[in-house]
Amino acid sequence: MSAFARSDGVLYAEGVSLAAIAERFGTPCWVYSRHALEAALDEFQGELAGTDALVCYAVKANSNLAVLDVLARRGAGFDIVSGGELKRVLAAGADPRRIVFSGVGKSAGEMGLALRAGILCFNVESAAELDRLDAVAGELGKVAPVSLRVNPDVDARTHPYVSTGLKENKFGVAYEDALPLYRRAARLANLRVSGIDCHIGSQLLDAAPFVEALEKILLLIDRLATEGIALEHIDLGGGLGIRYRDEAPPAVRDYLQPLLAQLRGRKLRVILEPGRRLVGNAGVLLTRVEYLKPGDAKSFAIVDAAMNDLARPALYGSWHEIVPVVPRQGPVRPWEIVGPVCESGDFLGRGRELALAAGDLLAIMSAGAYSMSMSSNYNSRPRAAEVLVDGEHAHLVRRRETVEELYALEERLPCA
Ligand SMILES: *Cc1c(COP(=O)(O)O)cnc(C)c1O
């Protein structure tokens, strides 16, 4: 069962009509399905059953507390990239021993927070970061568990902005540098070498680069073992793609089975960091048509959501399916679906063949990942409400911001 399906022509999220949600909470509005979140996590956990493995959801994909809560209750751990995300997952009830901390620029303050919380592992991305972490841990009288994010130099064959495993990327340590860095980490008094990690990119549609990366990482693990550096875990990152349009991403099984086969017989705990795959198709953005502006060259449907809400089309040229919540009869024509923001790049979809009238509700599909979490207040637009549907119930899980909240932290200059 898809979480978003039609009943009597009307699009529903589980048991609640999206028209009713728009009526109750207004537009634009994000709508997530608890069932879809759980089903996506279950797919991973089902494949991993019987193995020593931990699925650490990559929080940056969608960091709403209710989303984190749903996943935490089902046994997920979390992959965070900032102190802010750490505070969020702890507020959502996460177990700190199921948190891994990624990112190229961890501050001393963020390291301190994570050390005091007692997280599972720091995914370290440079020599300088190793030294800083050792110093911060020493000051706090703690021992920091570390993994090195190794860049396996494989081509993820995805969008250049979301490809991270090539030599020229800013992420991770170069494959050739990994061995000396592990030797150094093993000598530092306040670090404990715990694992190894890699993350080669996002929205991968082919399992082969993951296998290629794992082969290289295993060579390194064997080399480390000969030097007496034994690792407890291997973290294979995230990156598994989803279907936005007509892509054919691998099933979780087809992605995991070759990896698990390569790992068989090794006493290594497996960590995965999926983001998009868990939440991307569990959310939609609801928007209403404000105006129609038909023209000879192009016809514009101006809607109340914009690039500040959903940046992916403007940022990456991404395609999201856009469908009417209540389909209408009438002539179909290609519409440019655009927002009110003062940028020509402010489009959500181009040349969409739809029958539209002002006031119609549209659902922008596959908007659960890198959507609300990347939204901004550009043009002083309050961020949209977020609603989580659970069966017949729609819960407001983040209320719409007010304009006053947007400038509440600002001050005018003192008089004269
Ligand atoms: C973004 C990110 C992920 C999640 O990527 P997805 O493509 O959403 O699965 C996992 N690990 C790291 C280190 C990341 O930066």
From TrEMBL:
Specifically catalyzes the decarboxylation of meso-diaminopimelate (meso-DAP) to L-lysine. It catalyses: meso-2,6-diaminopimelate + H(+) = L-lysine + CO2. Keywords: Amino-acid biosynthesis, Decarboxylase, Lyase, Lysine biosynthesis, Pyridoxal phosphate. Signal peptide: none annotated. Its EC number is 4.1.1.20. Pathway: Amino-acid biosynthesis; L-lysine biosynthesis via DAP pathway; L-lysine from DL-2,6-diaminopimelate: step 1/1. Pyridoxal 5'-phosphate binds at G239, E273, P274, G275, R276, Y370. InterPro entries: Ala_racemase/Decarboxylase_C (IPR009006), DAP_deCOOHase_LysA (IPR002986), De-COase2_C (IPR022643), De-COase2_CS (IPR022657), De-COase2_N (IPR022644), De-COase2_pyr-phos_BS (IPR022653), Orn/DAP/Arg_de-COase (IPR000183), PLP-binding_barrel (IPR029066). The gene is lysA. Residues 37-279 form the Orn/DAP/Arg decarboxylase 2 N-terminal domain. Belongs to the Orn/Lys/Arg decarboxylase class-II family. LysA subfamily. Residues 31-368 form the Orn/DAP/Arg decarboxylase 2 C-terminal domain. Homodimer. This is Diaminopimelate decarboxylase. GO terms for biological process: lysine biosynthetic process via diaminopimelate.
